Amino acid sequence: xxxxxxxxxxxxxxxxxxxxxxxxxxxxxxxxxxxxxxxxxxxxxxxxxxxxxxxxxxxxxxxxxxxxxxxxxxxxxxxxxxxxxxxxxxxxxxxxxxxxxxxxxxxxx
Amino acid sequence: xxxxxxxxxxxxxxxxxxxxxxxxxxxxxxxxxxxxxxxxxxxxxxxxxxxxxxxxxxxxxxxxxxxxxxxxxxxxxxxxxxxxxxxxxxxxxxxxxxxxxxxxxxxxxxxxxx
Lengths: 109, 114
Known about the structure:
- The complex is a heterodimer.
- Chain A is an all-beta fold.
- Chain A has strands at 3-5, 9-13, 18-25, 32-37, 44-49, 53-57, 60-65, 70-75, 84-91, 97-99, 103-108.
- Chain A contains no helices and eleven strands.
- In chain A, the strands form two sheets. In chain A, strands 2, 4, 5, 9, 10 and 11 form a six-stranded mixed beta sheet that branches.
- Chain A is globular, with a radius of gyration of 13 Å.
- Chain A starts with a strand and ends with a strand.
- Chain B is 0% helix and 54% strand.
- In chain B, the strands form two sheets. In chain B, strands 2, 4, 5, 6, 9, 10 and 11 form a seven-stranded mixed beta sheet that branches. A four-stranded antiparallel beta sheet of chain B has the order 1-3-8-7, with no helix packed on it.
- Chains A and B meet through strand 5, strand 9 and strand 10 of A and strand 5 and strand 10 of B.
């Protein structure tokens, strides 16, 4: 079966750095996405990785290792507004997105 | 103005009623999707459409039907609503130039079936 695993909840301090991990087992691979979702709102696109390595976009970076079935989202200089759920999703061989359950990130002052 | 809109934003209905959720987009994307989201679970794909004449079932299509009235409009119907269809429903689109695979979401419809 297809499976995406990420921690259910994480807590971090304002101004700090946090890394949210995602491991996956899917039938085929056509890219990995990270989305941010504030409570009760729509998911919004953060990053897309299809090749191994690190993609940096401002305070957010995303890393992919296809051989290990592993990705992480790195958030630097955390702000209170970063409190949200972070969703990992993998595009399988049929170009359908398989979604993880999301990691709820709590930022404390 | 929002690129992907959904109506209604909230809906309360009773078991056995037929309801329709509507999605419209101004992004010019060919592909449209319907998902449901339940607490503690990942987004689950209900139906998807790659163009007006193409409709495909997702992983949880039972109890749902869809209509792609135009490139910009994709509706989801619950023929006879049941309480376990209470969830947050999202419409999404993709197919933009330069980021064809990235999905963009509407604001969601919160549905409660009593």
